[in-house]
C-alpha cells in the first residue's frame, strides 16, 4: 500500500497533477506546544504558543489515518518533545502502525533516565540540537539552557547508544548563523570523535526571524515545491493541518483539521490544489508564504527519486545528497536555496564554508579529546 501511494504521488508530480488521490509520505507532528528555553531564531518567539500537548484523540486519529500510507513521522514542532509526558507512548504507537518516528531535542531534559527509556523504544532517528561550540555562543542561541549540562547529556546519551549497539540514528546538528559560523570547524571536529554519533550536520537557518529579507521572492521559483506533493505536512498540536512547517511560521492559514476532515479531503482540498497549480505554472511567488520561505527546493529529479524509495531510506540518503551538492560533486541546480541576504562580515569570515556539511564521525586523535568550553 505504501509503495502504491508513493507511485500515485510520483505520477501526480511527474504529470503536473493538482489532485493526487494519495497521501503524504511524511508528517511533522507537534505533540506538544510547550518549550523550556528561549531561542531568538525560533518562530515560537513571534508566534506565542499555549502550554498544551496534543490529545490522544488527535494523535491517534492522525496515525490511524496514515497507517497504510505514512512512512516517516517527525514528532517535533514548536515544542520540546520531552515536555510531552506521552512522547514514549507516541513513539510506540507509531511503530505499532508501521510508521517510523523521529524526534529532535534541545537536550535539557535528556538525562540518564530519559536516555535509557528512549533507547528502549523503537525510535529510528534523533537529532541533537547544539547550536554552538563555546559556552557563550551556545547560551546566546539557547537562552535558558546550560551549556555544560546539555553537552554532557548528549555525550552520555551517545555513549549509552554506542554501548548498547543501538541502531538508532543519531545526528548532532548546528544551525549556522552569523553568531556561530566561526565555530563550525571546531564543532564538527569535536563531535566527529564521539562514539555513537552517526552524522554531524551544519545547516543554514531556514527561518527568516534573524534575516527578515530572506526568501525565494516572487521570481526565483524554478521548480514546484516538493512539500505540496510528498510532504511533510505539518500538524499542529490542536489538529490543524498546514501544507508544510514553514506555512504556519509565515502566518499561513491551515488547510484543514484532522479531527474535522479526513486527510484525503485535506490533502486534495481546494487550497492545496490551488497552491500546486500556482507552483506548476511558475507563479509560486504569488503565494505570500512561498515568496518568504527560506527552505531549499530540490530539483524535480531528486523529488521523483525520493518517491521511489521508502521514507526511511530517503531520510538516510538525504544527507549524502546534500553533502554531494554542496561539495560540488553534483550540480548545484539540484538544490535551489533562496538567495542569501548580504550581511556585514569581516574579511576573515569563512563565507566559503558549505551551507550544509554532513558526514559520519571519524576517529579522534588524542589531541582532540578536550571537550568544548
Automatic annotation (TrEMBL):
Residues 344-354 have a biased composition (Polar residues). Transmembrane segments: none annotated. This is Radical SAM protein. The keyword Ion transport does not apply. Residues 338-373 are annotated as: Disordered. It comes from the Bacteria. Its cofactor is [4Fe-4S] cluster. Keywords: 4Fe-4S, Iron, Iron-sulfur, Metal-binding, S-adenosyl-L-methionine. GO terms for molecular function: catalytic activity; iron-sulfur cluster binding; metal ion binding. PROSITE patterns: RADICAL_SAM. Residues 21-241 form the Radical SAM core domain. Pfam families: Radical_SAM, SPASM.
Amino acid at each position: 500500500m505504501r509503495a502504491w501511494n508513493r507511485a500515485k504521488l510520483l505520477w501526480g508530480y511527474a504529470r503536473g497533477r493538482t489532485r493526487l488521490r494519495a497521501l503524504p509520505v511524511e508528517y511533522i507532528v507537534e505533540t506538544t506546544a510547550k518549550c523550556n528555553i528561549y531561542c531568538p531564531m525560533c518562530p515560537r518567539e513571534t508566534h506565542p504558543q499555549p502550554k498544551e500537548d496534543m490529545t490522544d484523540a488527535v494523535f491517534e486519529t492522525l496515525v490511524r489515518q496514515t497507517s497504510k500510507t505514512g512512512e516517516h513521522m517527525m514528532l517535533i514542532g514548536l515544542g520540546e518533545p520531552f515536555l510531552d509526558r506521552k512522547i514514549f507512548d507516541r513513539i510506540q504507537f507509531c511503530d505499532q502502525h508501521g510508521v517510523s518516528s523521529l524526534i529532535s531535542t534541545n537536550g535539557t531534559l535528556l538525562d540518564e533516565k530519559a536516555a535509557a527509556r528512549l533507547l528502549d523504544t523503537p525510535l529510528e532517528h534523533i537529532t541533537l540540537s547544539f547550536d554552538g561550540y563555546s559556552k557563550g555562543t551556545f547560551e546566546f542561541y539557547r537562552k535558558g539552557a546550560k551549556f555544560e549540562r546539555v553537552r554532557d547529556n548528549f555525550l552520555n546519551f551517545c555513549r549509552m547508544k554506542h554501548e548498547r549497539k543501538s541502531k538508532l540514528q543519531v545526528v548532532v546538528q548546528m544551525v549556522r548563523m552569523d553568531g556561530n559560523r566561526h565555530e563550525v570547524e571546531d564543532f564538527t571536529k569535536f563531535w566527529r570523535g564521539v562514539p555513537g554519533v552517526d552524522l554531524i550536520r551544519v545547516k543554514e537557518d531556514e527561518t527568516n526571524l534573524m534575516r527578515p529579507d530572506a526568501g525565494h521572492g516572487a521570481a526565483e521559483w524554478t521548480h514546484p515545491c516538493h512539500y505540496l506533493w510528498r510532504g511533510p505536512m505539518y500538524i499542529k498540536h490542536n489538529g490543524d493541518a498546514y501544507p508544510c512547517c514553514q506555512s504556519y511560521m509565515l502566518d499561513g492559514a491551515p488547510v484543514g483539521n484532522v479531527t474535522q476532515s479526513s486527510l484525503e479531503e485535506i490533502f486534495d482540498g481546494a487550497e492545496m490544489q490551488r497552491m500546486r497549480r500556482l507552483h506548476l505554472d511558475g507563479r509560486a511567488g504569488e503565494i505570500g508564504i512561498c515568496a518568504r520561505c527560506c527552505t531549499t527546493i530540490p530539483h524535480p529529479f531528486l523529488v521523483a527519486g525520493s518517491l521511489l524509495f521508502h521514507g526511511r531510506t530517503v531520510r538516510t540518503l538525504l544527507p549524502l545528497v546534500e553533502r554531494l551538492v554542496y561539495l560540488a560533486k553534483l550540480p548545484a541546480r539540484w538544490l535551489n536555496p533562496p538567495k542569501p541576504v548580504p550581511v556585514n562580515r569581516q574579511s576573515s569570515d569563512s563565507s566559503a564554508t558549505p551551507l550544509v556539511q554532513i558526514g559520519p564521525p571519524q576517529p579522534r586523535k588524542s589531541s582532540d579529546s578536550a571537550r568544548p568550553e
